[in-house]
Automatic annotation (TrEMBL):
InterPro entries: GlcNAc_PI_deacetylase-related (IPR003737), LmbE-like_dom_sf (IPR024078). The lineage of its organism: Bacteria, Bacillati, Actinomycetota, Actinomycetes, Geodermatophilales. This is N-acetyl-1-D-myo-inositol-2-amino-2-deoxy-alpha-D-glucopyranoside deacetylase. One of its GO terms (biological process) is glycoside metabolic process. The keyword Transcription does not apply. One of its GO terms (molecular function) is hydrolase activity, acting on carbon-nitrogen (but not peptide) bonds, in linear amides. The keyword Zinc applies. Pfam families: PIG-L. It comes from the Bacteria. Keywords: Zinc. It comes from Blastococcus colisei.
């Protein structure tokens, strides 16, 4: 753990340890890839915990979309991790829950939050990271929300806590995206989306990182996920850069140890 006088998010040093917890392969690249690469370039040792192998993803047509999708996506994950500078990948062994519908056997969302938190707590105990990074789940995907809840519980069960940080997409940026999508694809369901409900409220963002210097790493990682359609495909160059060169983060304030359920002394 870092000393209390240093801000581990803004003052990253060689040898710092970060744990990134995501639900699916490509979350690390499509989601928080620039922040990961930024930390790695500054010298942090980044471990990625991925809860599933993304079996419920919608594979693109062609050779990369055939065969066992979980195997394909795990390979993509490991190659993308190398591009971002991640030093270690841990798979937690759950199945992809899908966005909605009946849960498959072994699905992440079928596992109690406490059980998923146990796995993350084991990594937190081993690594003692300065920072734990997750997606904020504001896209509504139930797996993203589930792994985020597990991360919160795991941290509250520690005495020496890492800084818990959520990667966010601010409402102002997603409003720009919606305007562009409505113009590019006027016949799609984008017309029905409520701009006010998109992403995270801008006032909740606590930190904004300029990640222009690691754009090549982020782009390389995104390109490794060939079985999936990138959410940035088809965007104008200006909007694409807005997504990929500026990361928006929110620090999570957790309850005191005396209020948290079942504290762990580590």
């Amino acid at each position: 753990m870092t000393d209390s006088a240093r801000d581990p998010l803004l003052d990253i040093r060689a040898g710092d340890r970060w744990l990134v917890a995501v639900a699916h392969p490509d979350d690390e690249s499509f989601g928080c890839g620039s922040t990961i690469a930024h930390a790695a370039v500054q010298g942090a040792e980044v471990t990625l915990a991925c809860a599933t192998r993304g079996e419920a993803g919608e594979a693109v047509q062609g050779p990369v979309g055939h065969g066992d999708l979980g195997v394909v996506r795990e390979g993509e994950l490991r190659r993308a991790a190398t591009r971002l500078g991640i030093t270690r990948v841990e798979l937690l062994g759950h199945r992809d829950s899908g966005f909605d519908g009946e849960l498959p056997v072994g699905a992440l969302c079928a596992a109690p939050v406490a059980e998923v938190a146990d796995a993350l707590l084991g990594l937190l105990r081993e690594l003692r990271p300065e920072v734990l990074l997750v997606l904020d789940g504001s896209d509504g995907h139930r797996d993203h929300l589930h792994i985020g809840a597990a991360a919160r519980e795991a941290v509250t069960r520690m005495d020496a806590r890492p800084l818990l940080v959520e990667h966010c997409l601010p409402n102002s940026l997603l409003r720009r995206w919606l305007e562009e999508m409505r113009e590019l694809r006027p016949d799609t369901a984008y017309h029905a989306l409520d701009p006010a409900g998109l992403g995270r409220g801008d006032t909740e963002i606590t930190d904004v990182l300029d990640t222009t210097a690691v754009l090549d790493r982020r782009e390389g990682a995104i390109a490794e996920h060939r079985s999936q359609v990138s959410p940035f495909d088809g965007l104008s160059d200006e909007l694409r850069r807005a997504f990929l060169t500026t990361d928006h983060l929110a620090r999570v304030e957790l309850r005191g140890a005396e209020e948290s359920p079942g504290p762990e002394h580590v």
